[in-house]
Specification:
By secondary structure, the chain is of the alpha/beta class. It has four domains: about 70 residues, Arc Repressor Mutant, subunit A, CATH 1.10.10.10; about 60 residues, Winged helix-like DNA-binding domain superfamily/Winged helix DNA-binding domain (Arc Repressor Mutant, subunit A), CATH 1.10.10; about 110 residues, Rossmann fold (3-Layer(aba) Sandwich), CATH 3.40.50; about 190 residues, Response regulator (Rossmann fold), CATH 3.40.50. The strands form four sheets. The protein has a six-stranded parallel sheet with strand order 6-5-7-8-9-15, with helices on both faces. Strand 7, helix 8 and strand 8 form a beta-alpha-beta unit. The two termini are about 55 Å apart.
Length: about 500
Amino acid sequence: MNGITEETLRKLADLASTSQGRRLPSIRQLAAKWNISAGTVQTAVRSGVAQGWLTTRPGSGIWTQGSMPSPSQLPPRLDAQCLAERIAAEIRTGKFASGQVLPAPKDYSKLLGIHPATVRKALSQLLSQNLLERNGRTWSVRRPLARNTPRSPLLLCIGASDSNGNLRMDTDPEWDFWREIQAEALRCGLEPRLATWKEGAPDPRNDVFGTIVSTWHMPDSTPLLDALLRQRHPTAVWVGNQENLPGARYRFARTLWFHDLSFGRDSGATMAEYVARLGHLQVAWISPFHASSWSQNRLFGLREALPKQIKVQEANGSWVSEWDIQKDVALDSEVLNRISLAGMDLDGERATLARPLIEAVTRERCLEHFTPRLEMVLSSGATLWVVASDLAARWCLHWLRSRGMRIPEDIALVSFDDTREATRNDLTSLRFDVQSMARTMVRQVLSSRQQHRLVTRYTGHVYERASSPILPTTPFLRAAAGPTPESAGSKA
């Protein structure tokens, strides 16, 4: 046996020792990963089989000895039809933008461990379904252009207004959402028109092709949705609070579809998959905003999906959102009167300084109220804190550091939303797939004659940063180790 094969055999043995009973990558995948020929990998596999620590079966792949499931337990083989359905679902749920070039058949082949001819057959099926278009050797997502409409049909984009009468966008997901809505609309030949709503019906226009609505910051969006239903505009709605999800009122609506980005339990389950890898046996759930349905659902999903040996300590508050505290601060005239810096033009600088000052006072008031619960959690021995949102995680970070605690050496932190603050503070956070949701909504409006789910729910992906390193290997960690959870971009 030559040196290259011996080195490959050592790599294969190391890979098998950490596989935890899972199927090993295919010969083609290993050859691409190690930058060697497939023949060298196959020789090493045969040697492993001969030595008794590997086993193979045609169509079943490579397994460590004793871990290969029976044929009835194996997942179905990924053929062209299954691959076509999988890519079609990814297109319809917004993973790819309109006009975006898909990975080449060779890349799909390496990623999925199937033959390039199978990939090309699947792409050809999608071409005949008008989901893809081909230009030479590249395949791209077909733009679902509006038909039998004016040259530049309008896509009306309605949201709540801010104090200046502009579209209100207070958070990172809202900025990302409206930006992607406009980009996808332009890619599909629509003219996005931003509009704000306070009360009453939107002005009926003959050139409006469809409507996108964000109910964030709308206390009651029912009058708006009822008016759009009467106007029969195909309308996709981003639900801003749990109460706006359709009940019996819109159950049979043919032109209204709802999208839930963050209220479901799936996000808690996705975080649980990540937490289970880290090796912490005592975990704390921190949420000052546990009166909200989204916080309760995240905790429920987390508890249900965590292994039973992980104990969860709860520290919950009675607020719905930060506005429960912030409104008292924002309306307190004494807050802004505290600005007394020499040499500053207060009339010109007050507006610029108001927001960070209000946020700082809000944080201090929240922590003053919430400190007894945090003290209880700190004394409980929990080494990982799962915080309901990035905002609350930032408050916890400030509180822990003020007590001399080191992150992550003493306490590890993970949170939800993946805002700019998570990046700035190096916090591990779950990012909701707002871009995919925006693309799905535009495509849904353009294909309004097709059957759609009334409610589409989305989860997201955990982005690991320095606030939550994996602990040294423990028996539990070895049992729970696996790939970083990358949950589905969209779930119904």
